[in-house]
Each structure stands twice: as C-alpha cells, then as structure tokens.
Amino acid sequence: MNVPGPTGWLRNRSRLFPALVGSLHGRTTLTLVILFWVAVGIMVWHVARLQGNLIESMALANADLYSQALTEFRTLYTREVVERVRHQGIVVTHDYESREGAIPLPATLSMKLGQRIGTHQAGAETRLYSAYPFPWREEQGGLQDRFGREAWEFLTRNPDKPFYRFEEVQGRPSLRYATADLMRASCVDCHNTHPASPKVNWKVGDVRGVLEIIHPMDALDAETWSGIGETFGLMMLLVLVCSGGLGLVVIKLRRVSAELEQRVEERTANLQQANQELERQIFDRRKAETALSKSERQHRKVMDSVPALIAAIDRTQRHRLTNKQYREWFGLSSDQITGRHVRDLLGEPLYQRLRGSLERALSGHQTSFEVEIGSEEGRPRWIAGTYVPDVDDSGAVQGLYALISDVTERKQAEEALASLNQQHQLILNSTEEGIYGLDLKGNTTFTNLAAAKMIGWEALELIGQPQHAILHHSKPDGTPYPREECPIYAAFKDGAVHHVDTEVFWRKDGTSFPVEYTSTPIRDDRGDLIGAVVTYRDITERKRAEERLHQSEIRMRQAQKMEAIGTLAGGIAHDFNNILAAILGYTELALSRIPHEDRARQNLKEVLTAGSRAKELVQHILTFSRQKEQEKRPMHLHLVVTEVLHLLRATLPVTIEIRDHLVAPSDTILADPTQMHQVLMNLCTNAEHAMRERGGILDVWLEAVEVTDEVVAQHPDLRPGPHVRLTVRDTGQGMAPKVQERIFDPFFTTKGVGEGTGMGLAVVHGIVADHGGIIVVDSASGQGTTFAIYIPRIDPFSEDQDLLDDTLMQGSGRVLFVDDEGPLVVIGQQVLEGLGYEVVPHTSGVEALAAFRAAPHRFDVVVTDQTMPHLTGEELARKMLRIRPDLPIILCTGFSYTMTAEKARALGIRKFLMKPVLARDLALVLLEVMEKVHHP
Fold first, then answer.
1. Is the pTM above the cut of 0.90?
2. Do strands 434-438 and 397-406 pair parallel, antiparallel, or not at all (unpaired)?
3. DSSP at 856
4. In the chain, which end has fewer C-beta atoms inside a 10 angstrom radius, N or C?
5. pLDDT tens digit string along 334-363?
6. DSSP state of 474
7. SS3 35
8. How far apart are CA 408 and CA 508, in angstroms?
C-alpha cells in the first residue's frame, strides 16, 4: 500500500506573496505583477511539488534501505546467536551492552544498529513493537498509537508490503515507514522454547511484530528549501531587471536541481556504499557460516563414528546436539531430540537415578555412572557413562557432554567370570587344607580361607605379599630361614615337587604351628614355569595326638603297674586280715585272763595297740586296692574342707599360714565324707611336712569347673561335664621329676624312718580314682607343689543321681505347672504330688497367667513349658516377673531357637531344663530353687 505524501506543508513555508502584493501599485502593473507572480507561483508550486516528491522518494528509499539492512542483519545475527547458544551455551540478555559470557537479543541489537545508521544518515529512529506481549513491548509502547495499530492490521494481512505515512512526530515532519517483522527459521527454536515467548506454535513466515523506521524530513527539507530560497531571490532579481532574469532563474533552478540531484546521488552513493559494506559483512558471515557448517558436519561425522552414545546438554538439561548412535538408541530423529529435556527421554525412574550425576557435572565435576536398566525382553541391561562439564574460556559451565555405552555384554561377562571365580573359590574354600599360589617372585597370587585362617590373616591381605617373609621366615627354633633354602621356592626353580612335614609356619601374632606341606610347580601352555601352588595342613592335632599317645602309653604302664600292685596289695591285705584277726582275738582273750597287776598285761596291750595300727594299715591297703566298698552319698564338699582346715589351724605351727578360697557356687558330689576327709588331711599333712623347717603358705581352693573336650584330651581318665576342683598348694621345697614319678607308688616315701609309711598319696590316688576323678600334680624343685583333684559334680544331668534316695527329694509348697500337652501335665502333677508338693495344673499359658494375676502370692514356684500357643513360656515368665519379681520360675523346653540358658538367666528365670525332664532331675531342681528362696 502506498499512501500519497501530503505536500501542502511546503506552501506554508512561503511568505513571499503578501509582501509582493503589498509593494505593487496600479491596476495594470498589479495585473501584470499578479500574472507574473501567478506564473512564478505556478512555477514555484511545481518546483516545490517536484522538490516534495523528491524528498519523499529519498525518505522512502532511505527507510526501505534501512529496513532491508536491519532485516538482513537480524537474520544473520539470529543464526549466529542460535548456533552460539546451541554449541556454547551462551546466555542471551535484553541488555545491549552484553556482559561477559552473554549476548544481546537480535531485536535489541538491530534497534541499536538502526539508530546508529539513522543517526549517521538522516537522524532516523528505529522502533520494533508487536501486539504480542514480548519482553520489549512495554519498552517500545506496544500498539499504543494509531499508526502502530493501523500498521499492525495492514501488515498482518499484507506481510510482503510496506506501510508508511508522513506526519509530525514530536513536532518534526517525519516519514513513518513500517514493514512486517517475520518469523524466520533461525528464530523458531528460541521463540518456541523461550519462557517469555507469548506463544509456542510459531511457524516460519508468521508476523511477530512491526519494524518501523521514523525518518525526519528536517535535513532534506532544509537542503531543498535552501535551493528554493535562492530561487525566490533570483525571481526578485528578475522583477527588478527584466524578464530576462527569468532565464537566469531557470538556469539557477536547474543548477539547484542539479546540485540536489548530485546530493541525492551522493547520498545514494553513500547508502550504496553502506549497503555494499553490509553485503560484504553478510558475505563474510555467510562464509563463516559455511565454514561453521562444514566444521559442524565434520564434528557430527566424528561423533557419529564413535561407537558410543554422545550428547551435548545445556544448563537446563535440554539436548543441544546428539550423534547417530544416541538417536538410534532412542529411535528418534535429531529434530525430535533437540531441545527436549533429559527427563523426557530417560523417563522419570531412570532420570531420578542419574539426576545426582547430572547436577554434579553441571556444577563443574566430571562424573561417571553405571546403572541397570530394563529391556523389552525382561532381561536386565546395563549402561555406563561419563558426564563431562562444558566449560568456556572464563571457566563458566555452559552445559555438559554425555558419553554413554551399553556395557551389558561386559557385565554379563564379568558376572560369568565372577561366578566362575566364585565356584573356584568355593572349591578352594571347601577344603580344610591351606592352598595358595605364588608367582616367580614368591608373591601370593591367590589363597583360600583355610590358608589365611591358619596363619591369622585376611585372605585379601595376603594377595601380592611375599609368602616366605610372612609365614616361613624362621625355623622351628626361631633362627632365620634363608629364602634360598626354602623348599617352597625351590619348586619353581628346579620344576620339581617338594614335600616337607618337619617344619613350622608362623602366624600373624608371632606364634608358630607344625605343618606338612607340598609345593608343586605351575607351568603355562608352553611349558614355562610361572609359579607354584602350595598345599599345607596344620598338624598340631596330629602332634598332640602323638604326644597324647605317648603319655597314654606311659599312663597305661603306670596304671598296669598300679593295678598289679593293687592286686598284690589286696591279696596281701586279705590274707593279713585273717592273721591279724587271730592275733587280735587271742590277745584280747589273753588280756581278759591276766590279772591287772601282772607285768605281761602291759606287754599284751602293746600287742593290741600294734594290732590296731595294723588294722588301719589293712584299711589303707583295701582302699588303695579298691576292694572295699565305701558308702557314697550326696554331700557338700566345702563342709569337709572347712572342718579339716579348722583342725589344721589348731595343730599346724604358726610359721605356716593357711589361706582358703572356697568360691564354688555348687559343690555337691557323690562321695564318702570320711574318705574326702582323709584325702584332704593327707594332702595338707604332706604340705605341712614340706614347709616344716622354713614355714610358708598353705592355699586351699574349692571351685566349680566345666571339663571340656580340650581338658579331656589332656586327661583321658576324665569325662566331660561339671566337676569340683579341690586344689592344695604349698610353698615348700618342691619335688624333683624322678620323685614326682613315684609319689603314688605304695610304700614310697621321702620322709625319715618313723615319719611315714609311704601309703598316704597311694591311698589318696585310690580314693580319687574310686570317685571317678583324677589327681594332677605340678611341682618343681624350690618352687613348691600343687595338687589338683577333679571330682564329678552332681547336677540335673548327672548319671549318678539315680543313686539318691527318694526320701532326700521330698519337698513342700504350691507349684503352678503349665504345659500345653495334657498327658505331661498329668504325669508332672502325680510325680510332684508324690514328692509332697501341691500342684495347680494348666494346659494354657493364658489361663495360667489369669490364675496367677488373681493371686500372685498363692504360688511358691512356677514350672512352665516354652513352646505353647497364644502365649509362650518366655512371654508368660516376663508378664509374671513384672507382677512378682521374686517368683522362682523353671522353664522347660524340648528345643528352642530363641531361648537359651543364658537368656533365661538374663530374664530372671531360675532354671532352664531340656526335655525330657526326669522326675529325679525335676525334684532336685525344685529342692535347689526352694532352698534358695528360703535361704537366699
């Protein structure tokens, strides 16, 4: 649309007509003058019209040239901005003066450029506005004036035509020239994704705004009016001189016109020069764009040739650039991926797993990851990758590069290898023998758990360590073991198998143990030696077994000797008893018939006294030979010990101090009290004899101990289980080894004549052996002597309890008996009632708890099963003890994963019995528990 420009404003500029009319007189003259001035006015009007059209044409040409230059500049600049933002992550700002790391918007820069060009040319002004709410709408006034609204309406219908009008702008005559600001391909991405964009469905060719050039007419008007003024001056000369001056005027007008044309040409030339400069810049930019495009193609080609997924991602986690593998992995095109958020491609679950790595990379730290993802076949797949920060020259993070690979095959291979290694390790660890491998330097390459455990190391600690320096550095006597003499290393030096069974290996804590080992060379596929594998076993137990066998042989010979001596002593005692009976009988008969004053009577009394001593000797012989049955009954050993020590304190000299350590919580044994008295008296008498000259300390211990399998291995005559240990120690002169070997032999003594018969320790040995115990001696010359006696202790599991009399197990009290098995409740009730107890039976833990809560102090003791429905014995005990903490509870169970004797004690349960519980066992436990209640 072309709107004709008004030229009437030029007429208002002339003030010549009134002056000329006022200066003329006379009708004829006036007529001529009027006609002349009419002609002149017509000429001036025509010139002015021509001048106005020329000014309008110049203004329109300038405005059109500005508009094209700005549009071309914006197109090229927008492409550059898009590429720089896409590849470098540069921030776009509304400020014209771009700060470091940012560039201005194309609209902002184009307006500033237009203003600069207009200022240099004709003071033109550039405006950019739109009916859409762009960020710059408020700054430029939007469509607030009439021209802007009309221009918007016209250009939206005719985007390929300009719209212009001549009018005053801020009091200055101006050309307002408007063209459509069209959406171009380089602008679509930003305008569709920018958060301030008024819409997101822009298409190429859409009218997004109005580009207005406001061209002031003052400068052109001044130039043209200077020429017109000169023309009018010439016309005045024509009036004064003649009509011939009209020719000069015409010449001058032509000259002025020529000058104006020259100026227009110069202006046009300047504009063309500016246009050429712009074209050169456009060419340079297109050349740079072509080079950049070529570089980008090469870059894409390199990226596509890498067998990995590569993507460039900006700070908002949106894709900027991807390679072929990346696009094929997701099955999308470049346009479908570019600009999309990482979350949209990965999905929310996988994105959340990688979110931390993404954010860490965007903070400037390179991050690696490896995650498991699903697949359509349902089999797991694995990806591994690295996020590398994209940092510009200033160090600011513009985004990141993602390098991702499918490592499913590698993970499967690793899992297969790990499974194979695990199988091999399981095979190695399944054997009790130690196995480890060595390289040619003697460093460990692998080991099994048994090998590491035997030397006190962790398996991983041994890998890479020199084995000789760790476990084979010294010989059994502690002297250094030279590496060159090591048979283990010799295997991969001479290629032969080396077997040794007379050396020791050293543990991490510095202790050693005997080993039997074999070092076997290892060869590769070519037959070259590459190391050795060593298998070894700890032969400590074998050595101990050999030592125990040796000691057993010694003890067996000693036992055979003692048995032979006992058999002989028994036979002698038996015959000697017959002789002694005759001697004593006849002596008593003789005494009864000899008068009191007869001197022979005193002699017979001496015979009778000697006979009594012989009788005691026979008793010792019978005890030693175990041919005399003794009466055994349950007894508390500490009572005998207390009595003996009381007697000794009254008889021993003050130079000997007696110390007792009676710490056994339970010392009930099945024994003859008289014989126990005799054992302790003999041991203490021997101790007193050893300290008689110099004095010393006599220590007596009484302890409850548990004989384990390790103790039985050292003392085969013992049986595992609870025992009482009675220890007597003196600080006398001690015994030499040869004396210690014979102390239990009958009639062997180190005492002087008349001080002992040599039967004391022999009798002690016989009594202890008869009670199922042993006696252990520890002595050395000058260091005193210690005798330790082990005697089985009676407890609920003792096999000797069936010897007890039922009368000893009678009791009294009210028992709450709980078991979910009805027959067991009936049996328990009958047994306990037969022993004198009052029994309240229940087959339900819940019912029993209700009865207890009704009368907590009605019951003296509770016997309950552990495994019961609704309420277990443990829970029942907890609830009852909360009500009455002093309540004795006996918990019985056949088997329980959760309950042990230690846990039962921790809960406050007095006794813990394993089923089946014998009546005698339960009776003894009830007696023990009730005794503690009455005598805590």
1. no
2. unpaired
3. G
4. C
5. 888 888 898 888 888 888 888 888 889 888
6. B
7. helix
8. 42
